[in-house]
Amino acid sequence: MSTRGLCALSVVVPTRNEAPNVAVLMVRLSAVLDGLSGGWEVVFVDDSDDNTPEVVRSLSRPGGPDMRLLHREPGSRPGGLGGALQEGFAIARGQVIAVMDADLQHPPEVLPNVVAPVLAGSADLVGGSRYGRDGANNGLDGRWRRVVSRGSLWLSHCLVPSTRPLEDPGSGLFAFRRSVLEGVQLRPDGYKMLMEVATRGHWHTVANVNYTFAERYAGNSNAGLRQGLVFFRHLVRLAVVCRRRERESKRPGPTVAPTPTVDIDLTTPPVPTVQAAVINLP
Ligand SMILES: Nc1nc2c(ncn2[C@@H]2O[C@H](COP(=O)(O)OP(=O)(O)OP(=O)(O)O)[C@@H](O)[C@H]2O)c(=O)[nH]1
Ligand SMILES: [Mg+2]
């Protein structure tokens, strides 16, 4: 990933069978982002078996944002959602990269607030938050999922210190300066890419932007019990990364080798000084 972006903002959207949602998503995104100084693009990374790619292609319009579609064929979709986002980051051309779901659970109208601190240079990483004072989790399906979501938040903060500045490290809505991932090898596992970026990326300042998580607009959830298990595996991996880093930072730094002493043989006669004659060559 190079440090230079070609537009101000890339919105990376992972899609898996989201055909009924992408048109509305584009209309609502364009309504809030068209006119952004420096321009914006949207990068769909698609693992669909429905007609999402055809719908996305049909949405490109003259004068609209650059739209890019990376469709991954069945059998070559490594990493699922996390792998898709990683591929999206690799081709994103924005100085700022934002991530949001395609099903409108992340209302596109909050995106300007999420990217603003990064565009303004006051934060390197911004997490959308359902759990701050002005956030809400209305769209999360069922009481059980809400309890699990809260529990996961607590576990993330306990086990993975790098996620503590984030009010909602499990959020799929976030933005970061592209330099955060400069030279970074991500190893995503499952749905929680923000935890991955916060743990392996290079950042100094974090901001949280509260929003109300909406209900899925149309189509079916891709999340399931398996994703819950993958989340725990990912959490343990990131906890190990943090522990290792903590240990390394406590280790004494490299010792500076003493300047080697040079033995000078004082018995060596001094080199006689010769009065150099200036010879003018003819
Ligand atoms: N490219 C890609 N996108 C995926 C994959 N799984 C999910 N997505 C997308 O990631 C986003 C989040 O997935 P959802 O199915 O909405 O999961 P969720 O929001 O946790 O679950 P719901 O609240 O039930 O919607 C959506 O835009 C999906 O289309 C995948 O394997 N590959
Ligand atoms: Mg969803």
Ions, cofactors and other bound molecules: guanosine-5'-triphosphate, magnesium ion
The ordered string of helix (H) and strand (E) elements is EHEHEHEHEHEHEH
Low-pLDDT stretches are 261-282
- Please list the strands of the largest sheet in the order they lie side by side: 3-2-1-4-6-5-7
Number of domains: 1
Secondary structure class reads alpha/beta
State the CATH topology.
Answer: Spore Coat Polysaccharide Biosynthesis Protein SpsA, Chain A
Written overview of the protein:
- The protein has a single domain, classed as Alpha-Beta Complex (Spore Coat Polysaccharide Biosynthesis Protein SpsA, Chain A), CATH 3.90.550.10.
- The protein starts with 6 loop residues before the first strand and ends in a 32-residue tail after the last helix.
- The chain has helices at 22-33, 52-58, 80-91, 111-119, 143-159, 193-200, 225-250; strands at 7-15, 40-46, 66-71, 94-99, 125-129, 174-177, 206-210.
- The chain has a seven-stranded mixed beta sheet.
- It has seven helices and seven strands, in the order βαβαβαβαβαβαβα.
- The chain has 282 residues and is of the alpha/beta class.
- Helix 2 (52-58) links the parallel strand 2 and strand 3.
- The model is unreliable at 261-282 (pLDDT under 50).
- Residues 14-16, 18, 45-47, 80-81, 84, 101-103, 105, 141, 172, 216, 221-223 line the site of guanosine-5'-triphosphate.
